[in-house]
Design goal:
By secondary structure, the protein is α/β, with parallel strands linked by helices. Helices cover about 55% and strands about 10% of the residues. The structure holds ligand Z5A.
């Protein structure tokens, strides 16, 4: 369980997560933010979910192959939770406790959106898995990248080329529309933590919006080192 091991926020690195639908540009923007933090001499690691640690990467392979779907929504949720547990204990917490910033491509909001809202897994199970895997470790800031579904799917299809769509890419357009709504709802319900970013513009414009929002967030809510 993560709770006991986490240092107070003032002593640890910042934990920033990126969320959004298919092709919204999370991976692209995480890399850009890592470069900007590096330029101001802030140590940061980039990681992802599902995955990010050797054990969790094995589970990632299982889930994206569609195996988890065959087991049913509850069991698939448990697989994501098992991966998160390993990732938090072996990668995220150790880095944060050394003062290193962690930039994570997807985290528990993905479980809330994909399994909770769209998979209709009961809130009791989603909340219990959240408690067990992350305890009090909430991201300091979450960027939710928002693009119209057709834009995201076009980008993802262009990147995929002739490769086969994975378990989630293969869902229909209605699924992706509902997903976008689920994320917009998450952003509306937790405005202190979540910033909804219009990610339809070119990559540099989106990166500038994220950087501006990060600086604003640090100015208003954080007490330690700022890249400003
Ligand atoms: N999942 C879950 O169900 N429950 C959970 O708890 C967790 C995850 C943690 C992991 O997929 C899947 O697991 C995910 C949810 C589920 N399902 N899906 N789909 P993944 O890790 O394989 O993929 P992803 O997270 O969805 O990311 P992605 O499809 O790779 O997209 P992205 O990272 O958001 O986008 P990108 O790779 O940065 O960009 C996509 C393409 O668009 C690429 O060619 C870029 O060059 C281009 N791009 C990026 N930005 C722009 C702009 N601004 N303009 C034009 N083109 C752009």
């Amino acid at each position: 369980m993560a709770e006991a091991a986490v240092k107070p926020p003032s002593l640890r690195g910042r934990f920033i997560t990126f969320e959004g639908g298919e092709g919204s540009g999370k991976s692209t923007q995480i890399r850009k933010l890592a470069e900007r933090l590096d330029a101001v001499k802030l140590r940061a690691i980039v990681t992802r979910e599902p995955g990010g640690s050797p054990g969790a990467e094995i589970i990632r392979h299982l889930v994206l192959s569609g195996m988890g779907k065959l087991l049913g929504p509850d069991a698939e949720t448990l697989l994501f939770a098992a991966a998160r547990d390993d990732h938090v204990r072996t990668v995220i917490l150790p880095a944060l406790n050394q003062g290193i910033w962690v930039l994570c491509d997807r985290f528990f909001d993905s479980t809330r959106a994909y399994q909770g809202q769209l998979g209709q897994v009961l809130p009791g199970l989603v909340n219990a898995m959240q408690r067990v895997t992350i305890g009090d470790l909430k991201p300091d800031l979450t960027f939710i990248l928002d693009v119209p579904v057709e834009v995201g799917l076009q980008r993802a299809a262009a990147r995929r080329g002739n490769a086969v769509a994975d378990r989630f890419e293969a869902e229909d357009v209605k699924f992706h529309q509902d997903l976008r709504e689920a994320y917009r709802q998450i952003a509306a319900e937790d405005p202190q933590r979540c910033v909804l970013i219009d990610a339809t513009a070119d990559q540099e414009t989106v990166a500038d919006a994220i950087w501006t929002a990060l600086r604003e967030h640090l100015r208003t809510s954080m007490t330690t080192a700022s890249p400003a």
